[in-house]
Amino acid sequence: MQITELSKSSKQRQRFLALSAEQQSIWLDPAEKEFSKHGFKAASMNQILLEAGASKGQSYYYFQDKADLYRAVIERAFKRFLALADLKYPKPCSPEDFWRQSAANMAIVSTIMHQDARLADLARSIHQDLAAQQVLAEFMQMLTQRLTVLIVIGREAGAVRQDIPLDLLVSTAFSAMREVDNWFANHMEAVLPDEHETLNLRAAQIIFMMLAPADMSTRLTHTLSTKSGDQK
């Protein structure tokens, strides 16, 4: 899967990308720690610089401002997430197969967030911080584009309804998925391990029901049930 840079090109950006991964980590590790703990708006640049052993002058050599550093942190975290998830667009042979593959992808995302507390904290900081969402407008647009491709694939497979404009379907699904992600990020520790898979399936079913044609309701419920999920 091709990963595009999420931050706009700048002289500072080019200098930072020219650093080795180890040199980048000197900046990104303490920044990720601070942003995941406090969110973008409340994060202290002074604390990040203190832990990085750097000055403000040095930070301006690589980053335009705190927002620029935050984008670099999110970009690295997203690449780490994609490497762990190895998500692929569905190649369905039937509507049910499309939903089954989509549910499997959502389960992978949920499992990774459950196992990687730092990624979950960063995701939660984005959901809860309007300033972070504004800084990551380009990143959010990229996610929307990926969801659009997924819904188009679903339409071609006969799994997604055709009676509503594509952009309305995408925005509705994106909002619902963000709310589900936010809930899991905030309640992860309260969900028992043996309940996690079932709850994830039910959450996926809520989103899929909005997107599927009305006459697929019963078939979709069966496809995403815990027992039928293991059937071929």
Automatic annotation (TrEMBL):
Q: Which UniProt keywords apply?
A: DNA-binding, Transcription, Transcription regulation
- Which InterPro entries does this one have? Homeodomain-like_sf (IPR009057), HTH-type_TetR-like_transc_reg (IPR050109), HTH_TetR (IPR001647)
The record's section on Pfam families has: TetR_N
> What PROSITE patterns does the record point to?
HTH_TETR_2
Q: By its UniProt entry, which Gene3D superfamilies does this protein fall under?
A: Tetracycline Repressor, domain 2
Q: What is this protein called?
A: Uncharacterized protein
Q: Name a GO molecular-function annotation.
A: transcription cis-regulatory region binding
